[in-house]
Design brief:
- The radius of gyration is 22 Å and the shape is globular.
- It has helices at about 5-15, 20-25, 50-60, 115-125, 140-145, 155, 160-165, 190-195, 230-245, 255-265, 285-300, 310-320, 325-330, 350-360, 390-405, 425-430, 430-440; strands spanning about 20, 40-45, 65-70, 85-90, 95-100, 105-110, 130, 165-170, 175-180, 205-210, 215, 220-225, 250-255, 275-280, 305, 335-345, 365-370, 375-385.
- A seven-stranded antiparallel beta sheet has the order 15-12-14-13-17-18-16, with helices on both faces. Strands 5-6-10-8-9 form a five-stranded antiparallel beta sheet.
- The chain is an alpha+beta fold and about 450 residues long.
- A hairpin with a 5-residue loop joins strand 8 (about 165-170) and strand 9 (about 175-180).
- The chain contains 17 helices and 18 strands.
- About 45% of the residues are buried.
């Protein structure tokens, strides 16, 4: 357990916003995914940067490890406590919008705001802008920064790395550091913003975020195309990319995932077939050009293109896609989801997805595939009971291996956490030592989310 004196100091800082009961602490252990950590020693709920700084100064003094926590939606065990003697810092209550400029296309926020809440803020304020990185809807922006998330719009707008302008970070010793700024580019010194994006809480705690915004397109149109086989579906995306036509979203669902979403939503709009969802966005002229390209290329590969007739139909289609994660887990509620993702060069995507499907079948596992296929990123949800753990882990390792062999990465947006820590050397064997040196320089006591991404050597 955590030292009484440590808890007493935190109580003084937080004014009782610290959770110590077993019931409260156990609520942070449960997850829909297969990583089941231990019960943390305490939970604290800061509301601003100053409180986080005082908390981390105290942690550093007592050498108490800590985990920054958002919504708990990370799938690779990033927020799982690896020991009971650890403090979990719940940032989900830090929801303040600090500064917003529609004209300069930025917003400065605290990390506890979720993607859904941010979108609602823009709608409530009748803003003509939006933030394009739409990961899991309930994910906090702090968590999205932490894992380097992307989402369905990444093919057009990039990932969190390209859309995070600046950060306020509290380092493990409690120092407050500001990186980046409101300008859309800078060549001043090391790019510390992108060092912290994707660091998964191992270098400190994100307490403020400056996000790059986009104006809403004047025209959008949604369509989908269904195919008899997965290869034809993905090859159509490859040809579309080669055509040079910029399409806003290109999202894959394999047959098993479509089936899961139909069962979850009750939709009768879509048949159980390999499916690609498209969103065309821009001016009316460019949207028509995008739609024509989709029809020409998909239909030449045997795909039937269906265009949404109105805004309500479009919303229903994207809702169908957005609930894919919950729908997949709902197929077998008694099992946990072992979720993995990989990203490869676009021309290698058809082969990688085909190999992944064959491996699933060969191992006798139930799973489904979705993908941000416009940028080569695909996700597999494996439904696994305890008897399936070994086979599911073999599958995850296999997907990572084929991705790296094709010049890709073992994770496009989920991060490493503990789930892929053993696989990281397959991709970055020559550079892990540098990552460890950076970690040691910023966190010499190894208290910031220790045991995630990689282990620290006894000596550096």
């Amino acid at each position: 357990m955590l030292p009484d004196k440590f808890i007493s100091i935190l109580n003084g800082v937080l004014r009782e916003r610290i959770l110590l009961s077993k019931v409260d602490r156990e609520a942070y252990v449960t997850t829909d995914f297969h990583f089941q950590g231990q019960c943390p020693g305490a939970i604290c709920l800061p509301v601003n940067t100053e409180e986080v700084s005082l908390i981390l100064k105290t942690c550093n003094t007592f050498k108490i490890p800590f985990i920054p926590y958002g919504a708990g939606t990370s799938v690779e065990g990033q927020v799982s406590a690896l020991s009971k003697d650890i403090l979990l810092i719940d940032l989900s209550g830090m929801k303040q919008v600090i500064e917003f400029s529609e004209d300069d296309l930025f917003i400065k926020i605290q990390p506890g705001i979720t993607y859904e809440e941010l979108e609602q803020y823009f709608l409530t304020n009748d803003a003509s802008v939006f933030f394009p990185i739409d990961a899991w809807p309930a994910a906090t922006l702090g968590g999205m920064v932490s894992t380097g998330a992307s989402g369905t719009n990444a093919v057009k707008y990039g990932t969190m790395r390209e859309n995070t302008l600046g950060l306020t970070i509290v380092s493990p010793n409690g120092d407050v550091v500001h990186t980046g700024g409101r300008a859309v580019k800078s060549s001043a010194g090391y790019d510390l913003t992108r060092l912290f994006v994707g660091a998964e809480g191992t270098l400190g705690v994100v307490t403020e975020i400056i996000l790059k915004l986009q104006y809403r397109p004047s025209c959008t149109l949604t369509a989908y195309s269904q195919f008899d086989d997965i290869n034809s579906a993905v090859e159509s995306v490859v040809v579309l990319k080669k055509s040079g036509v910029s399409i806003g979203r290109m999202e894959l669902m394999d047959k098993r995932q479509v089936e899961a979403c139909i069962l979850y939503t009750g939709s009768t709009q879509i048949s159980v077939k390999e499916t690609i969802f498209f969103e065309c966005s821009g001016t009316e002229l460019s949207v028509n050009a995008q739609l024509n390209a989709i029809k020409d290329i998909c239909e030449s590969s045997g795909g039937k293109v269906v265009v949404s007739s109105d805004e309500a139909s479009s919303k229903n289609l994207w809702h169908f896609r957005k609930v894919a994660g919950k729908a997949a887990l709902n197929l077998c509620p008694e099992k946990k989801g072992m979720v993995t993702d990989a990203c490869v060069p676009i021309t290698r995507l058809p082969e990688c997805i085909l190999l992944s499907q064959k491996k699933l079948e060969g191992l006798g596992l139930d799973g489904s595939i979705v993908g941000h296929v416009g940028d080569g990123n695909f996700h597999v949800t494996v439904l696994a009971g305890k008897e399936d753990w070994a086979a599911a882990k073999d599958f995850v390792a296999y997907v990572a291996k084929i991705a790296v062999s094709q010049g890709g990465t073992i994770t496009g947006e989920h991060g490493i956490g503990v789930g892929k820590k053993a696989l990281l050397p397959d991709e970055h064997a020559s550079s892990i030592r540098i990552m460890q040196a950076i970690k040691h320089a910023i966190d010499p006591n190894n208290i910031a989310n220790p045991g995630k991404i990689f282990d620290m050597p006894s000596e550096l």
